[in-house]
Amino acid sequence: MSETSEPHIAAKGFPDQVGVMGGGRMGAGIAHAFLSAGATVTVVDINDDALEAARKRITKSVTGSIGRGAAGSVDEWMQRVQLSTDAGAFAGCSLVVEAVPESMELKNKAFTTISQASPKTVIATNTSSLSVSELADVVTNDVIGLHFFNPVPASKLVEVVVAKSTPEELVSDAQGWVEKLGKTPVVVKDAPGFASSRLGVAIALEAIRMVEQGVASPKDIDNAMVLGYKFPVGPLELTDIVGLDVRLGIAEYLEETLGERFAPPKLMREMVERGELGRKTGKGFYDYSGDS
Ligand code: NAD
After folding, report:
1. DSSP 122-152
2. What is the CA(103)–ligand 1 centre distance, in A?
3. Ligand 1 centre from 238 Cα, in Å?
4. Which of 42, 45, 152 to mutate to test the pocket of ligand 1 (most atoms within 8 A of CB)?
5. Is the CB of 242 under 6 A from ligand 1?
6. Distance, CA 135 to ligand 1 centroid (Å)?
7. Atom of ligand 1 nearest to the CA of 100
8. How far apart are CA 273 and CA 66, in angstroms?
9. How far is the CA of 126 from the centre of ligand 1 (A)?
10. The overall pTM is greater than 0.85
11. By three-state DSSP, how is residue 287 classified?
């Protein structure tokens, strides 16, 4: 973003028309968060099946909110959701949050598509670890990282990631938006892994090395952190929730950018190769085969 370019169109207040690119686990949660603050949300995904899955996920979250006492009916909330396979539907959005899978190539393409559809919109990326500055380079839009946590409705934290080109006023606007979503922003410089993934993955990798070396069982390692350090969930159970494949990808990126201390343990690679990815495949450090 050059100094002479026009300011982003959302500069003065909460965006009432928000786009979400990628309606998967995170995208649906992000859509729900903005709906809960009164916005209209446009979700774009690759095909009708993905959109139907997104609609179901959002409906489930909305039903949960209403069950917990939020005003309105599911139908009223869902009337504010538009689903499309055409990014042209983002025209008019003052903020578009990108939540496509964690790949620089995919995200670069998503950024270009969003920018073509809505050249003035602010683009926020939900990347867990990729360089926001590098992503911002492919477009002329104002760009910031808004790193939501999984599951979005229950998670109070959003990392506001400041890229080299992010205007200062956008950083304070974004903090305000996050607060309006009922969450707490933490402002982090665009450094590999930001604050949360860097620290969270470092602990998880050490925990996996401890399992590998037979220091203790997964349950005992998790209990040490939950009971000893008041972690809400142990590092191995959390790795199962996030997905071993997702965390392996982040560890590889952090090893490349921050050094050997983030080298993924052999056990982690072997588990990913065996398809033991955590909750989503029924097995990780724990067995979920009995879960519905
Ligand atoms: P996901 O696989 O559940 O969802 C990705 C969605 O993007 C899918 O619906 C897919 O169809 C869609 N998609 C793929 N290519 C697309 C394209 N070109 N245009 C539009 N949609 C497209 O992934 P997720 O877990 O929701 O992760 C999304 C992002 O959020 C990633 O960057 C990830 O690192 C980040 N993130 C994930 C978590 C987590 O715990 N899962 C937490 C924080 C951040």
Report:
1. EEEE--SSS-HHHHHTT-SS-EEEEEE-SSG
2. 10
3. 18
4. 45
5. yes
6. 16
7. 7
8. 41
9. 9
10. yes
11. strand
Q: Is the CB of 25 under 6 A from ligand 1?
A: yes
Q: Report the interhelical angle of 266-273 vs 196-212 (nearest 10°).
A: 90
| Residue 146 identity (one-letter amino acid) | L
Ligand 1 atom at minimal distance to the Cα of residue 249: 34
Going from the Cα of 130 to the center of ligand 1, the distance in angstroms, rounded, reads 13
Write out the E strands in the chain.
Answer: 17-21, 40-44, 81-84, 95-98, 122-125, 143-148, 157-162, 184-189
Each residue's pLDDT expressed in tens, for the chain with a length of 292 residues: 333 334 444 445 899 999 999 999 999 999 999 999 999 999 999 999 999 999 999 999 999 999 999 999 999 999 999 999 999 999 999 999 999 998 899 999 999 999 999 999 999 999 988 899 999 999 999 999 999 998 999 999 999 999 999 999 999 999 999 999 999 999 999 999 999 989 999 999 999 999 999 999 999 999 999 999 999 999 999 999 999 998 999 999 999 999 999 999 999 999 999 999 999 999 999 999 988 6
